[in-house]
Task: inverse folding
């Protein structure tokens, strides 16, 4: 890695095996709780400090970060139907989104409302990408960018645009990623987020049935897949005194 290159580490874990979309409310609550425990334990393990040594803070926008032994770590986590993901960076604010690919009612109307005009045209023009998977691919990129910025304002979704197709779809490992991640070309951003050249967006490999993306508020960031940590059983015996970090 080139000295000074921003770097992000990404983890995923499967927290339960309930059939997608059929989780009772109590199971959903337990998944949210297990996700926070897993995040807390993974950050502590990565920093090689006891969980109680972590100091959880928020920036002016309410986005959480962690301070431990003089190190500041930006983080973002997400969960969807029993799968959780976490992105950590000491270089720059980061956003992660993971979503299960699923059928949606009124998909075209939904896509028209949250995709940029260019994305919507591409989405409709490419038959192999029209449908839930193509939509989910674009959605996770947008969510990752807004999370890295620190705002989940729905009104901005259609103002974040990325390329879909041969010029923007992930392929084999590229020069900026490892473990199968691939850089995505940003073609449009709201003025509030600054120029696209100051951002990095990657699609990252997620557990089966899911898609995920990570965004970094830095140019040329490298994304490294750190794998999956901790089984569901280990979660049950994990340190229970964790902060109720916002789902950002």
Result:
């Amino acid at each position: 890695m080139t000295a000074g290159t921003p770097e992000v580490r990404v983890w995923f874990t499967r927290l339960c095996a309930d059939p997608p979309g059929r989780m009772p409310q109590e199971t959903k609550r337990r998944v949210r709780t297990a996700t926070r425990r897993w995040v807390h334990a993974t950050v502590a393990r990565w920093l090689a400090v006891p969980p109680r040594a972590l100091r959880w803070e928020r920036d002016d926008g309410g986005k959480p970060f962690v301070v431990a032994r003089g190190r500041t770590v930006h983080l973002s986590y997400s969960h969807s139907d029993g799968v959780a993901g976490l992105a950590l960076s000491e270089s720059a604010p980061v956003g992660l989104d993971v979503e299960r690919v699923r059928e949606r009612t009124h998909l075209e109307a939904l896509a028209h409302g949250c995709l940029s005009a260019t994305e919507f045209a591409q989405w409709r023009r490419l038959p192999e990408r029209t449908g839930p998977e193509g939509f989910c691919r674009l959605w996770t990129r947008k969510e990752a960018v807004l999370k890295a910025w620190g705002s989940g304002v729905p009104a901005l979704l259609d103002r974040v645009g990325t390329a879909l197709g041969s010029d923007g779809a992930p392929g084999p490992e590229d020069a900026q990623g490892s473990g199968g991640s691939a850089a995505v070309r940003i073609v449009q951003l709201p003025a509030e987020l600054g120029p696209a050249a100051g951002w990095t967006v990657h699609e990252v490999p997620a557990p089966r049935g899911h898609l995920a993306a990570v965004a970094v508020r830095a140019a040329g960031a490298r994304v490294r897949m750190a794998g999956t940590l901790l089984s569901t059983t280990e979660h049950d015996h994990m340190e229970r005194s964790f902060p109720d970090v916002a789902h950002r």
Notes: The radius of gyration is 17 Å.
